[in-house]
Amino acid sequence: MGVEAIDDVLEEAVGRRHRDDPVLGRTAGPAGNAQLTAWTGLLLLALAVVELVTLIDVRGLLSWHVVVGVLLTAIAVLKVASTGWRFIRYYGRSRPYQQAGPPLLLMRVLGPFVVLGTVAVLTTGLWLIAVGPESGRTTLLTVLGQRIDLLSLHQASFIVFAVAAGLHLLARFVPALALATERGHRDGARLRGRGPRIAVLVLALVAGTLAAALILPAAAPWRTEQHDFFPGGPPPGFRHD
Q1: H-helix or E-strand containing 103?
Q2: What average pLDDT does the segment 162-175 reach?
Q3: What does the alpha-carbon distance between residue 57 and residue 123 come to, in Å, rounded to a whole number?
Q4: Structural domain that includes position 61
Q5: How much is the pLDDT for 236?
Q6: Residue 206, C-beta contacts closer than 8 angstroms, at least 6 positions apart
Q7: pLDDT in tens, 202-218
Q8: More confident residue, 1 or 56
Q9: Which one of 21, 77, 138, 218 is at 20 to 30 Å from 104 when CA atoms are compared?
Q10: CB–CB of 185/170 below 8 Å?
């Protein structure tokens, strides 16, 4: 992994090169899979921005924080399924997916950190809702004199997620826009299977909305608890009154 690998990522990040995904069958094959992955990635970005805005007033916007977090979970599951399908098909020696080729080397290295960071921040967030403030602040272990509880794990996993997802965003935003809008497609026609892909995306959003409606009441204790959300006080500019 050297300068050439970095140059490859930069070329793809600014849209000067792209992976040639074959268009096959009713679902458009690898090209259809790439488009679904791009749609879910852009939707995750929009939801993540809203989730960050809720941190301005964590307690006052707690309901929104929970609802958007659950929606993020639903769409993240769909994105992992979409990228996982491509992984399985490629290493299962499917000729069209092998023809398209794997992601660039640096993106393959970064990928597991993005997935693990996403899973960690969403899982610990849902776990916090389930156990409530008292259990969420119960010490799980002590490391170098610092006590670790579930809330601190959630905050630490958010940092990992933010760094990994931020780097991923820089590399994939422009290519994702091109894939989502089918800009630069060879024959200029829409990819087949667009309807089913939209249906899958809508289904994930509906499932996330229903899950949020069921989970939201469980977050009520966090609105009334008297502790700070952040150890040592909130970051500058953050309100939680």
Answers
A1: none
A2: 91
A3: 22
A4: 27-183+192-224
A5: 46
A6: none
A7: 999 999 999 999 999 99
A8: 56
A9: 77
A10: no
**Residue 95 covered by a domain:** yes
Contacts of 79 (CB under 8 A, 6+ apart): 37, 40, 41, 44
Is residue 72 domain-resident? yes
Domain tally for the chain? 1
How many alpha carbons lie under 13 Å from residue 129 in its C-beta half-sphere? Answer: 21
Give residue-wise pLDDT tens across range 63-122.
Answer: 999 999 999 999 999 999 999 999 999 999 999 999 988 888 888 899 999 999 999 999
Angle between helices 105-136 and 62-91 (to 10 degrees): 140
Instruction: Return the structure tokens found at 127.
Output: 């776990």
The set of residues, in sequence order, having a beta carbon less than 8 Å from that of 135 and lying 6+ positions away, is 150
Q: What's the pTM value of the predicted model, to 2 decimals?
A: 0.84
Name the phi and psi angles at 148, rounded to 5. -115, 120
Query: In whole angstroms, what is the distance from residue 155 CA to residue 215 CA?
Result: 20
Sole residue written with tokens 């929104």 = 64
Sequence-distant contacts of 77-84: CB under 8 A, at least 24 apart: 77/204, 78/36, 78/40, 78/200, 78/201, 78/204, 79/37, 79/40, 79/41, 79/44, 80/115, 80/118, 82/33, 82/36, 82/37, 82/40, 83/37, 83/111
DSSP state of 229: S
Bridge partners for 142 per DSSP: 147
Asked whether residue 141 is domain-assigned, the answer is yes
Strands 139-143 and 146-149: antiparallel
* CA angle 159–45–186, rounded 5-degree value: 130
